[in-house]
Amino acid sequence: MGKIHELDNILANQIAAGEVIERPASIVKELVENSLDAHSHRVDIIVENSGLDSVRVIDDGDGIAAEDISLAFHRHATSKINSRHDLFKVQTMGFRGEALPSIASVADVTLTTAQAGQKEGTMIHLRGGKELVVKPAGARQGTDIKVTDLFFNTPARLKYLKSPQTELTRITDIINRLALANPAVAFSFTHNGRELFRSAGNNNLQQVVAAIYGVQAGRKMLEISGADDDFKVRGFVSLPELTRASRQYITITINHRYIRNFELTKAIIQGYESKLMVGRYPIAVINIDLDPVLVDVNVHPAKREVRLSKEQQLVELIAETIRKRIAVENLIPDVDADQFIPNDDEVANLDRRLKEASPVYHAAPISAVPVKEKAATEIPTPEADNPAHADALDSEIPAPIVIHHLEDLNTPAMQKFDERYQNEGEVTPFSAPVPIIAEKSVKPTNIELDVHDKQDQQQNRFPDLQYIGQLQGTFLLAQAGDGLYIVDQHAAQERINYEYYRQKIGEASADQQNFLVPLVLNYSTVDAMTINQHLDTLAAVGLELESFGQNSFILRSHPTWFKEGQEEDTAKEMIDWLIKNGKLTIKEFRMKTAIMMSCKRAIKANHHLDEREAKALLKRLPQCENPFNCPHGRPVTVHFNDQDLEKMFKRIQDSHTPYADDFDDHEF
């Protein structure tokens, strides 16, 4: 007897369900896509216990004829394609005829439907793929389908489901994508009797974006439009100032079908060129209209992945469309100019410290310098975040004391110098040693290092760099006894900032500073769910959020180490990082947050530093625990030793053995 036999339909459907129906979110996706194919104008999704108890989808679409209702649950039964030619020009969301029989094979399904003009509708009840009841029923036009007792006959599938909160997040994300892809359809989403999302269905995509990501985000979206012979691109992208920590906020649809395509996502980011921060991504919703012949959707069971003809042409169109749209915008953010103007007390205090820095310091007081001139020479970051600015005065070189004769050692200036620096370690933070320059006629004094100085010099891992200049506003040129050093100013200050923030965030101090006005933070439903799961993690680093409405939170206080004027940005950055990496431990969260904050607050490329700021940066760098790499692993400095330089300029050449007949006698 042969071993090969044909599987029965129920078992075949259960096998197919393993590919199509992975979790409750898959059921929502398949049922809502059926509603869209039925030309629905309104779709209501009602979920209980994250879809584990029930999923119900109600629409006002075309409905199903009474004679077709049983056939609709047969495998590969569909009304959307008729021949193999239709498979290569699919214009509907579904076409395989797998969704309904797959769902019915692993759950309890009740469907009630009616078509326009019918006096009554039809109800069908199936459980585990078996048809139990088919009968007439009162119903309005459209379809009402309810799925309960999911995976009751395949309990092994239940153990692979995540927590109810995670499953609800997946459902919410699917509904958000479908709403963004179909702004002309009114969606509503209710979970356990609480409405989580609603769209108007007035074909206004910007309003849907605002409903999902918040009104403020909606106002910062730019409409884009581009076309060529094969593609039409329309949608919205955010201003460069509105970014997120992951690519999950980029939605791409092809003929209003949500898809995932890495090359198209890269094209959106390329359109911003260098206007995005490293590791930051825009919010974007882009629909691509094209001939169905140019796309193959029959690739993945869930139809998320597609194959595109002329993909590179489309990539260039998307990038160029975004590039042109952003180019006409004024991208300078609005800031409070008053925060850069020092008050009278700060000016008087700084004047006093400058005067005390050296007895021969005769520069004009800071109060005499116009505000605009001061701002032009300052790095617009706080002192703790910007060590170059904080210690700039430490590198100030006052007028030298020149010694012509031995009698000059008894001058008042020299006596003040002795009094100020006779004790090691008593130099004030805003003072600098005054150099003594001896003329050639004076015999130099032989000064030997003591034993401790020699040991410190031997143990010093990082050279004592002497500043030379700045290259292209990005690199600092410095020298030491062993050659030339080129320092990446951004990477250097990123390392300095990282060690500062790592220490401050790791302290987990209970000291808090109250906001004058509590900070209200608004997030999308998906983000709010993630935040609610990790309130304890945020509280452990000093951010205690209180729920305030459906997707909003109140922050009444913040850690005292937050820099003045940056409290809101710092809190949002920390929360944003948690949303991106929700599974981080507190230790990892502190480290990742410190890396992110150190990068955003470091000196950027093409930022020209004056000599004092550059010297201060080079002075702080050796004090780091690891001055060799930035937190992302990039090198802070590269080194050219003397021999390398001499080889580059051909001062050292390969040795050759001279032959007598190659040279005249007088050349030796």
TrEMBL record:
Concerning InterPro entries, the annotation shows: DNA_mismatch_repair_CS (IPR014762), DNA_mismatch_repair_MutL (IPR020667), DNA_mismatch_S5_2-like (IPR013507), HATPase_C_sf (IPR036890), MutL/Mlh/PMS (IPR002099), MutL/Mlh/Pms-like (IPR038973), MutL_C (IPR014790), MutL_C_dimsub (IPR042120)
Q: Signal peptide: which range, if any? A: none
Query: Matching PROSITE patterns, A to Z?
Result: DNA_MISMATCH_REPAIR_1
- Domain of life per record: Bacteria
A Pfam family this chain is assigned to: DNA_mis_repair
Q: From the UniProt record, which GO molecular function terms apply?
A: endonuclease activity
Query: Which SMART domains is this protein grouped with?
Result: DNA_mis_repair, MutL_C
Keyword terms: DNA damage, DNA repair, Endonuclease, Hydrolase, Nuclease
Q: Could you say which protein family the record assigns here?
A: Belongs to the DNA mismatch repair MutL/HexB family.
Matching entries from NCBIfam families are given as:
mutl, PRK00095.1-3
Q: What does this chain do?
A: This protein is involved in the repair of mismatches in DNA. It is required for dam-dependent methyl-directed DNA mismatch repair. May act as a 'molecular matchmaker', a protein that promotes the formation of a stable complex between two or more DNA-binding proteins in an ATP-dependent manner without itself being part of a final effector complex.
Its protein name is DNA mismatch repair protein MutL
Please name the source species. Limosilactobacillus balticus
Q: What is the lineage of its organism?
A: Bacteria, Bacillati, Bacillota, Bacilli, Lactobacillales
